[in-house]
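As a warm-up, study this chain.
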Amino acid sequence: MELNEDPGPIDSYVLYDQDNHVSSAVWDGQERGVLRCHEHTSMLDQWKLTPKQIKLVEKAGFGYLRLLPAMNLDNALIAALVERWRRETNTFHLTVGELTITLEDVALLLGLAIDGEPVIGPISAPSAVCEKLLGRVPEDLNGGMVKLTWLKEFFSECPEDALLEETERCTRAYLLYLVGSTIFSTTTGNKVPVMYLSMLENFDEAGKFAWGAGALAFLYRSLGNASLKSQSTVSGCLTLVQCWSYSRLNVGQPKFNQDHPDSNCFPFVLKWKGKGCCRTKCNVASYRKAFDSLNPCDVQWLPYRDMDYAAIPEYIQTSLVLRASRTMLLCFDKAERHLPDRCLRQFGMHQTIPKDVERWERKSRIVDHGADLMGKMDTALKEWSERWLHIVEGGNILDEEEYVQWYQKITRKYIGRVTSSVESEYQRAVTAMREIANLADIFSTEGLDSYNKGLIDEVKNIAHKCLTEPFEEIPKEKVTKKGSRKRKQKDHLSTEYE
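Now compare it with the structure written out below.
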């Protein structure tokens, strides 16, 4: 990359909102640093569920989500990914093409249903809903939201001999806490909208909703908001974002301990070992460099190909074809487009030039309780109802060559700017190391003894490690006026947990 090369897009009809995107600010030298990541899973294991409650949780469709590990989030990795998220297409624009988190990823990583009724319903008075379904009302219900701490204080321990009504109330409170701390986590801190509670009145009916599609709609909206240069926070299921990145991109992956879980366990997010799996954190600039120099060989296009599908429940297996459905995803007032035709290589297909994306205005449609939300979302609801009719297909190798030429014109090639000789040396070192890696990969070890084969393998490992792992963050020093050196205090990057 030349020092002042225009990073694009050359043709802005796809990425028409470039001026508001964070990448414009970064290119102009306005770093925003790590995003404040909102996910509140650290206290989930303090809820004591009885066997009766667990059965109700499973009925409602959250039997696998409750197994979600409390993961240490890599804020810098998430921030670097958000820099490449584009709300115009709901995809990550990387050097190798577009990738995205699809319905398949949600189903296999989280174990949530991606087929069924849309996650949308009537908006009732929050106090009335709490009184009816929880048996009590919190003092503070500002904005129709209840504090997670309040739910935990009053409902986290249900007696095993409790009456059915009390058991159901405690289970609803747990499920509201669960979705509010994971798939529907908000930037308001430790609160969750009461509107989700209305979906949990009947546990059998709750199990008919496409919670995975709702979670993805919510995440798309959250990533889109966070990609704007005016924003400093991000919410939604960030564990999903991080594990999606671990599964598909050879950047910043953690190293497993010998006792890590079986790689064929389900849901597949359990592969990433919970709290202990996050590697030593790098800064945003380091991850940015890694993504700016990403090659096709650094992408795991089909990460689930070798998974044990016998462990996947039938209701998820039969709905996986929806991974390639060009449809609209809904989560109450949020409607977001699912555009698998932009990332066909994630399904083992050749990538074609995708259809143009119709511009749609995102705005909150929820006003007061009693709002006719269903009527306001009729177009999106119709698209979701026709999801099985719009399964996309791939092209051939010639289509993919045409796609590459097209993509170079419409994408944002780089996020970071090369500003010094040090950066130029870095680029030259990457190029040289890539050549070494390629030579090591094609070198024939036939006829070599085990010792020399081991040496070749070591060269391969070292070369690929240098190419795929960003530099560790190094605290900088500054010189004071008196000439003494004062170490800068390292930013505290830990994730905010409830």
